[in-house]
């Protein structure tokens, strides 16, 4: 049985007691063959900038993977353009592009951010956005959460769902939705929260994840504390998982680990995109015992967002996620460094125990159950 938008709704399930979850019956078993495509919704200035960095990172990583995995990764995040598809640049010139098209919907209440994202992707030559999957107005939300949530939320709900539906219908198998947004502004926070609710209503059994940027403690917007609180309150009711990255930690990563004295938002967005790509990219096959077979190709391919939500957010009170990445170093230092899995896992474990997202200054004496008072 097929429900609306091609999502199987034959077995709604009972994941949190009051909301259906991704079903397991026969119609959904094609997850064994493919991990599913991820449709990204980029909201506001921050969401669009981080989203562009993410697709830049994913596009570069495709070439670094073994040939047998490239097609699966590309299919998960990009789609092939139609033969008669054209992409118009800002000057109005129409040019045919054969570059892969990101599975993304771009939304902002100001057109300049969306146009800048389109131009940036086009300049790479490796991938591009679909200019028909954008939505922008001439006036912003003015960091007003209520304006983004109520005013624009009601006005653009139908248009947003229509754009997302078109992108979802271009997928052979929808693996879930990833929303990119900030938590301090009006469009990313307010409208983003409303879009998450609309997607949950429209696709009740699909996996819905949010990638949210936490504002600086010193303050970027005078009402950021209220915007953040309202956004979190809404997302925890509608999303399957909320990955939170903090601007303070991104800034410290650039300064202490990458050697960038005065990090720009572009530098910080690149770090955030690299962390998220590290979570989304793995597509190893697992055998029946749960291990990763060496080159045998047996077992089940990981379903990106589905596995993340089921393994990490299996309870209603554990939906907030933090990202940790190791190693993090300047690109020029990589060729002089030897990486071994035991040492990387040990460092990642200690970062988790100490509650830090930085590799520098770890407390190696801290063990599970130790009294830290």
Task: Explain the overall architecture.
This protein is α/β, with parallel strands linked by helices and 373 residues long. Helices cover 42% and strands 14% of the residues. The protein has 11 helices and 13 strands. It has helices at residues 44-64, 67-77, 111-124, 145-169, 187-202, 224-238, 247-257, 265-280, 304-312, 331-334, 341-354; strands at residues 37-43, 78-79, 87-88, 94-95, 101-102, 104-108, 134-136, 174-182, 208-214, 241-246, 285-286, 300-301, 320-321. The strands form 4 sheets. The protein has a 7-stranded parallel sheet with strand order 7-6-1-8-9-10-13, with helices on both faces. Strand 8, helix 5 (187-202) and strand 9 form a beta-alpha-beta unit. Helix 1 (44-64) packs parallel to helix 3. Residues 1-17, 19-34, 89-96 and 285-298 have low confidence and may be disordered.
Helix content: 40-55%
Residue runs with pLDDT of under 50 for 5 or more positions:
1-17, 19-34, 89-96, 285-298
The helix-strand sequence is: EHHEEEEEHEHEHEHEHHEEHEHH
- Order of strands across the widest beta sheet? 7-6-1-8-9-10-13
List the keywords.
373 residues, alpha/beta, seven-stranded parallel sheet, 11 helices, globular
